[in-house]
Recover the amino acids of this structure.
């Protein structure tokens, strides 16, 4: 049986924020509590990939899945969905008051400790980054802490045999296909399959009530230590200026407008190419 | 059946409209053979309906009259269309060699009459454009269906549409002042714009909701209202029981309040939008009040007082509701994303909306939901919400998702969607409600027209025979085709 650890994160739907909502509080946070929550899309791809492995193996070999998230109680709804999709064990680490937005080293430490202490997985599958924080470091730091290799920009995985996975990843100018032995961290990038399948109501009723093990940061002392001695301090945040200027081209005919567009806006750029 | 061959139909249409307005491109024809009732077939690009002979673009009422006369003479089935946002099969070309008459190029706003508070526009004016234009000037149509970014005025009137602020502004039937429509024999009829009249039956209602089965709507005049979003008040509550929720809605309506939004979501449906503040198993009640500041404030205060009588209802921060309010509508971007999700997950979401008086709406909701859970395979979510309330009852908008398992695209509609529709319609008929609240009967629910109308079917049938004796107007819609 191949053991898979799937750390995932739940993020606020930032699309639901209007420009006026991007106001920083004194502790440099943006209030996103009024927006719905959703899967982090890279993690969602990783979760779905893990389920596809079972379909592809067609019963030849089995997979045991641990789902792990760091977050508050609203994350339980997502863990219940994974339970209904027959994930085997579900864990949530409650961060309490800790601000982990820009602390990939803490998240990586939690994942690594969980892997070493509880799950002992063959592979860790996780998204490469999330919208909030957006550092793309966590999978790499996790691999480093565990002393495991890490394949980045994974876009597809298939079972190779009982102990190995065939991993396709995006590389400069193409894709690489490697047969990877355990243990390894797989960092999922822009995979074509982004959406997690949906459990039926019957499966929700049958499997969705599986217990969720809730842990605290204190259960991960090495991570807690990192919190008290940050190696970086958040000093400021600045909104990205997304305004665009528009110019109305005025002329009598479409031909004249096209001529102005070419002469004033395109010609110079084309010449610089 | 048409008395002409396909090529002759196309030639005749080119003679009337010119070749540039007669489209025979195969892909366009295929995509014009259905609507979002067959959403999964659309996603899979499988077309099971007869492919029309042509899609034609009309630019004037006179052109519509000429096309209809031609079709009437040669018994060619006409499917009127504007925004192509229908979801009940009303735009399906059910007969061979149909012609889709697209009015989307009749898109001029003819008159904004701020003194008499009405706006006149051609059938192809997009509601979003019209309302954006009016709002810039401090006015609104008050009409805001979820399809606002897609729908156009002719189709909205033809389907007897309703907007999300209907509890205050009413349905489209309450907004339409006057109309212009073309009948199959080419006769152009105009109904003048007056505040009210007592001169016999209200003939606007022959046209409103005709779903293209009696005539082609070319022009509409609707009321406009002052637009005062700065006065909007938002209220939200969580509660344990849908039954209590219906009671709250009833009290608000019976006491005479007119919130622009009065909604009740069950836990399953609400869970998709409100899980960030409503605990699992909780229903959600939402109200918004708008209008002049004094009225909005008084409405909000009155509603709060009524809800406070129901101790089960716990208020939530109004900002949650305000956030939700700013993302109400569905446009092309959401539809494109939905198609991608359906392709990837084979999970599809559909809605069916019905109505009933206060004494039966809960039974309709509860029994239909239970039957669907028991009788339909592969269901992933069944829930619903009430979103349009009246003094004597409310609607129920069933929302359901299912996984499409071991089923080719052309069989999906019968294996799942029609089965669910059947259950809902059976329960509605059993308890005395209406099987369609605002999407129209289309072709999807035309099979239930006799149960829906009862003895009054005589009147609908007589209208059809009188106005469309040759049977050329959107056949299969409202009244099912004989097999």
């Amino acid at each position: 049986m191949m053991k898979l650890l799937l750390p995932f994160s739940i993020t606020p739907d930032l699309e639901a924020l209007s420009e006026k909502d991007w106001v920083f509080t004194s502790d440099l946070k943006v209030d996103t509590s009024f927006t719905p929550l959703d899967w982090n899309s890279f993690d969602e791809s990783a979760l779905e990939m893990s389920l596809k492995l079972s379909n592809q193996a067609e019963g030849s070999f089995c997979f045991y899945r641990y789902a792990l998230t760091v977050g508050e109680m609203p994350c339980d709804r997502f863990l219940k969905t994974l339970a209904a999709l027959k994930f085997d064990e579900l864990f949530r680490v409650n961060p309490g008051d800790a601000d982990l937005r820009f602390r990939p080293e803490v998240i990586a430490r939690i994942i690594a400790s969980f892997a070493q202490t509880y799950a002992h997985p063959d592979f860790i599958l996780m998204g490469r980054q999330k919208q909030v924080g957006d550092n793309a470091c966590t999978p790499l730091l996790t691999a480093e802490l565990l002393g495991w290799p890490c394949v980045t920009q994974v876009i597809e995985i298939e079972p190779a045999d009982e102990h190995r996975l065939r991993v396709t990843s995006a590389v400069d100018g193409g894709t690489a296909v490697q047969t990877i032995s355990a243990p390894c961290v797989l960092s999922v990038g822009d995979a074509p399959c982004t959406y997690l399948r949906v459990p039926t109501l019957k499966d929700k009723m049958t499997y969705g009530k599986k217990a969720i093990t809730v842990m605290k940061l204190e259960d991960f002392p090495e991570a807690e230590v990192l919190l008290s001695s940050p190696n970086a301090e958040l000093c400021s945040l600045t909104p990205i200026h997304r305004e665009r200027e528009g110019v109305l081209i005025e002329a009598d005919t479409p031909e004249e407008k096209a001529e102005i567009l070419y002469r004033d806006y395109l010609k110079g750029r084309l010449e610089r190419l | 059946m048409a008395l002409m061959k396909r090529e002759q139909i196309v030639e005749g249409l080119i003679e009337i409209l010119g070749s540039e307005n007669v489209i025979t491109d195969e892909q366009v024809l295929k995509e014009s053979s259905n609507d979002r009732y067959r959403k999964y077939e659309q996603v899979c690009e499988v077309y099971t309906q007869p492919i029309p002979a042509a899609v034609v673009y009309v630019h004037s009422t006179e052109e519509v009259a000429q096309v209809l006369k031609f079709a009437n003479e040669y018994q060619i089935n006409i499917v009127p269309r504007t925004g192509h946002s229908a979801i009940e099969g009303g735009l399906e070309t059910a007969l061979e060699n149909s012609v889709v008459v697209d009015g989307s190029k009749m898109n001029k706003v003819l008159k904004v009459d701020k003194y008499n508070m009405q706006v006149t526009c051609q059938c192809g004016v997009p509601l979003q454009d019209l309302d954006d234009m009016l709002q810039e000037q401090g006015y609104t149509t008050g009409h805001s269906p979820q399809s606002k970014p897609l729908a156009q005025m002719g189709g909205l009137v033809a389907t007897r549409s309703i907007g999300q602020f209907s509890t205050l502004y009413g349905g489209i039937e309450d907004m339409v002042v006057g109309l212009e429509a073309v009948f199959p024999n080419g006769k152009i009829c105009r109904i003048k714009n007056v505040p009210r009249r007592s001169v016999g039956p209200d003939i606007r209602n022959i046209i409103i909701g005709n779903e293209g089965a009696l005539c082609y709507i070319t022009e509409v005049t609707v009321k406009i209202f002052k637009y005062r979003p700065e006065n909007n008040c938002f209220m939200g509550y969580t509660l344990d029981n849908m039954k209590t929720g219906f009671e709250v809605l009833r009290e608000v309506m019976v006491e005479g309040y007119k919130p622009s939004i009065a909604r009740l979501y069950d836990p399953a449906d609400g869970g998709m939008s409100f899980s960030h503040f409503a605990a699992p198993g909780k229903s959600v009640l939402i109200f918004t009040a708008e209008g002049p500041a004094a009225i909005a404030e008084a409405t909000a205060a009155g509603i709060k007082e009524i809800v406070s009588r129901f101790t089960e209802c716990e208020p939530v921060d109004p900002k949650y509701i305000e956030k939700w309010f700013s993302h109400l509508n569905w446009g092309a971007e959401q539809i494109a994303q939905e198609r991608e999700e359906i392709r990837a997950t084979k999970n599809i979401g559909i809605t069916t909306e019905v109505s009933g008086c206060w004494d039966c709406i809960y039974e309709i909701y509860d029994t239909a939901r239970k039957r669907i859970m028991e009788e339909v395979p592969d269901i992933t979510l069944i829930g619903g919400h009430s979103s349009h309330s009246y003094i004597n009852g409310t609607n129920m908008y069933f929302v359901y998702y299912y996984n499409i398992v071991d089923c080719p695209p052309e069989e999906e509609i019968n294996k799942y969607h029609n089965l669910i529709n059947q259950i809902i319609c059976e329960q509605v008929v059993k308890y005395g409600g209406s099987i369609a609240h605002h999407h129209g009967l289309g072709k999807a629910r035309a099979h239930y027209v006799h149960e829906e109308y009862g003895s009054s079917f005589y009147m609908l049938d007589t209208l059809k025979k009188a106005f469309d004796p040759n049977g050329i107007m959107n056949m299969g819609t409202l009244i099912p085709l004989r097999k």
